Amino acid sequence: MKTIRKYILGALALTMGLTSCGDFLDVEPRDIITLENFWNEKGDIEAVLAGCYSTMAEEEIIARMMVWGEFRSENVNIADETRDANLTLVLKEGINATNWYCNWRAFYNVINRCNTAIYYAQEVASKDPSYTTSEVNAHIAEAVAIRSLMYWYLVRTFRAIPYTEEAFLDDTQTFAIPVSQFNEVLDKLIAALEAVKDNAVSAYPEITDENNDARFYSTGRITRWAIYAMLADMYLWKQDADKCIEYTQAIIDYKKEKIKEDKQFNLSDFDKFGGYPILPTRYSEDTYGNAFNRIFLLGNSMETIFELNYKKVSNDNSYPSNVPASNFYGNADRGPLVTYSSYVGLDESQGTYKVYDALNKGLDARGYEDYYSSLGMIRKFTARFVTSYREAGLAIRFTNPTADDIQKGITTVLPYGTAGSGKNYASYNKSNWIIYRLTDVMLMQAEAYALKIAQNEGNVTSDEDKANLQKAFNLVNSVNKRSVMQYPLKDTLTTSNIKSKVAIMNLVYQERNRELMFEGKRYYDLVKRSLRENVTNPTKNEYLREQVKNKSTALENTINTRFAIEDALFWPYFNDEVKINPYLKAAQNPAYSSGEVEE
User: Fold this and answer.
1) How many Å apart are CA 384 and CA 420, to the nearest integer?
2) Closest CA to 246 of 504, 444, 455, 434
3) How many Cβ atoms sit within 10 Å of the Cβ of residue 458?
4) What separation in angstroms does the CA of 223 have from each of 120, 397, 475?
5) 3-state SS of the chain: helix, strand, coil percent to 5?
6) Position 508 pLDDT exceeds 50
C-alpha cells in the first residue's frame, strides 16, 4: 500500500495505447509514463478501462470467481490433493485465514482503477474537446459497473468488506478502511448502478471476429444490459422480486428485438421455447450439442450478456489464455485439479438421474456436455483451444431419434477438431469466462416469481399465487426444454408435483444448477437461499447443508458441523490483509481460525 503511486503508474503503463473500437480489448504496454502527462485525452480513460478488463481476465481473479462461486458446492471434488494444498483445504472445508484463495488483492486493484478513472473523467473532458458529455457519462457508467461487479463478488464471499468509492492516488491517503456490512454494501451497489444505468452504452459498434461473429465487442464489454443483469441479481438477494422482474424482462425484451436482426433465425423458431430467443441443442437429424458449442466453444453467442474474452479479432495465439479453467477443470498437461462429484456424474456413469433430472430420462444434453465421463474432466470452459486455431467441441449422437424417450440411447459423444499438441494446454485455452447469459437471467426471473408467492406452506390456493407459480414454471420449462435431446421436441417437466412455493423454488434451484453447472454460480445460490430462509427457519442453512453433503459421504459430518452456523457460509479475511488494515481484525469471521501457530 505504501507504493500506491508507483502502483498506479505501473497500472496505467500496462493499459495505454488504445484508440479504436477494435483495439479496446487488445491491451499493449508503453515503456514510459508519468502521472502528470496522463489524464489528458479520452484515450487515457479508455486505456484504464481496458486494463480493468485485462486484469479481470487474469488468473488471480478468474480463479477466485471459480473457487468462491462453485467449489464449496456439491458440484466439484478434489482430483489431485498433491498440487494445490490451499485448494484441497477449500474442497474439504478446511479453510482458514492463511488460505491463498482468501486473498482479494486483485479485486481491489480493479476497484481502484475504476475509482481513479471516475475521479479524472471530468478533468480529462475539460482538456479534450472531442470528449463529449455522453462519452464521459458512458465511461463513468462503465467504470461504476466494473467496480460494482468486483464488490459484488467480494461481498457475497466475505459478507462484510471495506467499501470505498475514493481513488487512492498517493501516499498521503489513509488506506485502512472500516468494513461495511452486507446489506449496506448491497444498497450502495444498487444505488450506484441505478444512478448510471441510463448513461451506459446499449451496444458498441459491431466488429467481426475470426468466426464472423459481430457480437464479439458488445458481449465482451459492459453494456446497459450487463448493468441490468447485475441489478436483477442484486435485487433478488434483496428479495425485491418486482425490481428483479423489471430488469430481467427488459433484458429478455431486448434480446427478442435483437434476434429480429439476425438473419439466421425467425422469432417463430423459438416458439418451442416459450418465445425466448435461446439456441436449440439440436443440430440436425440425430446430432445434438449446438447450443453448447455456440455458447462455450465459439463464445460471444447471441445469449451472452457479458463475458470476459480470451481471443482477439484476429488469429493471434499470444492473447491471454484462460489458465484457471485449464488448471482446475482438466486441460493442464498434468490433468485436472478438480473433478465433477460422483453425485453430478451419476446420470451418465450409473444410469440414474439425479442432477440432470429423472423426468428427462437421460435425455438432458447437459449431462453429456458438461464433463467427460471417461476422463474425469469438466468440459465447460475447456472446449476452446488454439493451436493454429484448432478447436475441440462436441457432438452428441443418438440412435432412434424419433423413438420414445426411454428407448433412446447415446451411441457416441464425438469431439470436434483437436485439443492441441498434448502439453501446455493452459497456454492454448481460449474459452471465454461467462459472467451473465440469457438463461441465467430467465432463471433469476423464475426465482423472483417464486418469491412473489405469498402462501409459504402447502399447495397454493389463490389465483395470484397460482399465476406466479405458473410463470416461474414456464421459465424453467423453457430453459430445460432446449437441452432435451429428442425429436420432435416435447415437454419433459410437468406441474403435476409442483403446486407449492417450496416445490417451485426447489425446481428453480435444480434447473439453475443443471444449466449453470461449473460456471461459478452454485455456491452463491445456496448462500442466497440460506440467508433468506434463516430468517424464519431455526435450523440454520438446512437446504445448503443437504445439498453440499451430496459432494462426498466422507465429508458429511464435516459439512454438518461447518455449516451449522451462518458465519461459516462466508470466508475469513486473509491474514496478510488483517495485518495491513486494523479494522479487519475486529471484524474477522469467528467461524475460522487464523491458521497461524501461536507462540
Assistant:
1) 10
2) 444
3) 10
4) 21, 37, 24
5) 50, 10, 40
6) yes
Q: Is 159 left (phi over 0), alpha (psi -120 to 50) or beta?
A: left
Long-range CB pairs of 406-412 (<8 Å, 24+ gap) are 406/361, 408/361, 408/362, 408/363, 408/485, 408/486, 410/362, 410/368
Distance (Å) of CA 406 to CA 120, 236, 287, 360, 395: 63, 37, 17, 9, 20
Q: What CA–CA distances, in Å, run from 91 to 65, 75, 85, 190?
A: 15, 11, 10, 32
Q: Alpha helices, DSSP H only, in 57-132?
A: 59-70, 85-91, 105-127
Structure confidence at residue 7 as a pLDDT band (50, 70, 90): very low
Paired with 84 in beta bridges are none
Measure Cα distances from 97 to 38, 102, 181, 470, 585 in Å.
39, 7, 19, 45, 11
Among 47, 41, 10, 2, residue whose Cα is nearest residue 27 = 47
* DSSP string computed for 491-552: ----STT--BHHHHHHHHHHHHHHHTTTSS-HHHHHHHHHHHHTTT-SSTTHHHHHHHGGG-
Fill in the amino acid letter for 588: Q
Tell me the one-letter amino acid at 426.
A
Cα–Cα distance for residue pair 539/525, rounded to 1 Å: 18
- CA dist 245 and 448 (Å) reads 6
Q: Contact at 8 Å (CB) between 231 and 194? A: yes
pLDDT of residue 287: 82
In sequence order, which residues have a C-beta less than 8 Å from that of residue 221 and are 6 or more positions away?
24, 25, 53, 142, 204, 306
Give the C-alpha separation, 532 to 426, whole Å.
39
> Which residues contact residue 588 at a Cβ distance below 8 angstroms, ignoring those fewer than 6 apart?
97, 572, 573, 578, 594
| Closest among 481, 435, 445, 433 to 251, alpha carbons compared | 445
Query: Is residue 153 within 8 Å of residue 65, measured between CB atoms?
Result: yes
Phi, psi of 500 (to 5 degrees): -125, 165
Spatial separation of the C-alpha atoms in residues 529 and 237, rounded to whole Å: 9
Note the pLDDT of residue 414.
47
The closest alpha carbon to 230, from 214, 251, 215, belongs to: 251
| Phi, psi (degrees; rounded to nearest 5) at 75 | -80, -30
List pLDDT tens digits, range 417-441. Answer: 334 344 456 777 888 999 999 999 9
Residue 171 has pLDDT above 70, yes or no: no
Identify whether the C-beta of residue 102 lies closer than 8 Å to the C-beta of residue 571. yes
3-class DSSP state of 399: strand
Under 8 Å CB-to-CB from 553, ≥6 apart: which residues?
none
CB-based contact 240:233 (threshold 8 Å): no
CA distance readout (Å), 138 to 63, 134, 516, 599 = 29, 6, 30, 54
3-state secondary structure of 410: strand
> Which strand (E) or helix (H) includes residue 155?
helix 133-158
Name the 3-class secondary structure at 180.
strand
537: cell is 427457519
How many CB atoms neighbour CB 10 within 10 A?
13
Spatial contact of 481 and 489, defined as CB atoms under 8 Å apart: yes
Nearest CA to 501 out of 533, 541, 546, 466 is that of 466
More confident residue, 17 or 103: 103
What phi and psi, each to the nearest 5 degrees, are found at residue 25? -90, 0
The answer to whether 540 and 564 are in contact (CB under 8 A) is: yes
